[in-house]
Write a structure and sequence with these properties.
The complex is a heterodimer of chains A (215) and B (10).
Chain A: H1 3-26, H2 34-47, H3 58-80, H4 98-110, H5 117-131, H6 134-142, H7 148-174, H8 181-206
Helix pairs in contact in A: 1-3, 1-7, 2-3, 2-5, 4-5, 5-8, 7-8
Chain B: no helix or strand
Classes of the chains: A mainly alpha (215), B little secondary structure (10).
C-alpha cells in the first residue's frame, strides 16, 4: 500500500461520506443521480464477488463492505425514504444507462484476461466504473444551482481516480511484473471523463462563484 | 501472456 493508493481510497471514502451527510442532513437528494448510484451498485456487486472467495486484508474487506453498504443506503433513501424520495430530480435524471451497461458487458465478454464468470464480471465492473459518473455529470449540467456538497462529491470522486493513476505509476516502478493494462486504460478513460468538470470546479472556486456547468 | 492482476485494489 503506497501513499497514493491510500490517499485515493480516502478520497473515495470521503466522497461517499459527503454524499451521505448531504442527503441525510438536508433530507434532500436534489442534484444527485440515482442512475449513477445504481451503476456503482452494479460495479461494486460485480467486482467484490471475491469477498466470498478470497481474503486480502481487513482493510480491503472493510472498505468493500463500506462501499457496498453506503451505495445501497443511498439508493434506498432515494427510492423509498418518504421525505427524500420526493426531492429526487426524476425528470432530469434521464440518462439511459442500459446504453452503458450493455456495451461494457459485451466488451468484458470479448476483452478479458480469463473467460470465467468471476473474471468476466470483474472486468465488466472495471469498464462500467469508467463511465458510471456520466449520468451524474449530465444531471449536474442540467441543475442550475449545484450545491457545494454535490460539487464536492464529484470532485472527490475525480480526485480518487487521479490518485489511482499515480498509484499505478508508483507500483509499476517499484513492483516487478506489476501490470494490468485493462485496468489502466479504463482508469485513464475514467479520469479523462472528469477533466471538463475539474476545469469548471476549480474556476468557480478561484473566482469565488457558484459552480455551474455549461450545457 | 496473462497479466498478473492486482486484485488487492478496490
Amino acid at each position: 500500500m503506497n501513499i497514493f493508493r491510500l490517499a485515493g481510497d480516502m478520497m473515495h471514502l470521503f466522497s461517499i461520506i459527503v454524499l451521505l451527510l448531504k442527503i441525510n442532513a438536508t433530507r434532500s437528494c436534489r442534484g444527485v443521480s440515482l442512475k449513477t448510484q445504481e451503476l456503482y451498485a452494479i460495479v461494486f456487486v460485480c467486482r467484490y464477488l471475491d469477498l466470498f472467495t478470497s481474503f486480502i486484508s481487513l482493510y480491503n474487506t472493510t472498505m468493500k463492505l463500506i462501499f457496498l453498504l453506503s451505495t445501497f443506503t443511498i439508493i434506498y433513501w432515494m427510492r423509498f425514504h418518504k421525505v427524500i424520495r420526493v426531492t429526487y430530480d426524476r425528470e432530469q435524471d434521464t440518462f439511459r444507462y442500459q446504453f452503458l451497461i450493455l456495451p461494457c458487458f459485451l466488451l468484458a465478454l470479448v476483452l478479458n484476461n480469463e473467460f470465467s464468470a468471476m473474471e468476466v464480471l470483474w472486468t465488466f465492473s472495471i469498464y462500467l466504473e469508467a463511465v458510471a459518473i456520466l449520468p451524474q455529470l449530465v444531471l449536474l449540467q442540467r441543475t442550475n444551482n449545484i450545491d457545494n456538497l454535490t460539487g464536492n462529491y464529484v470532485f472527490l470522486l475525480g480526485s480518487y481516480r487521479a490518485l489511482y493513476i499515480l498509484n499505478w505509476i508508483y507500483r509499476f516502478m517499484t513492483e516487478p511484473n506489476y501490470r494490468q493494462y485493462l485496468v489502466w486504460i479504463s482508469g485513464i478513460v475514467q479520469t479523462i471523463v472528469y477533466i471538463d468538470f475539474f476545469y469548471y470546479y476549480i474556476r468557480s472556486w478561484r473566482n469565488n462563484e457558484k459552480l455551474s456547468l455549461p450545457a | 501472456v496473462r497479466e498478473k492482476i492486482a486484485k488487492d485494489e478496490l
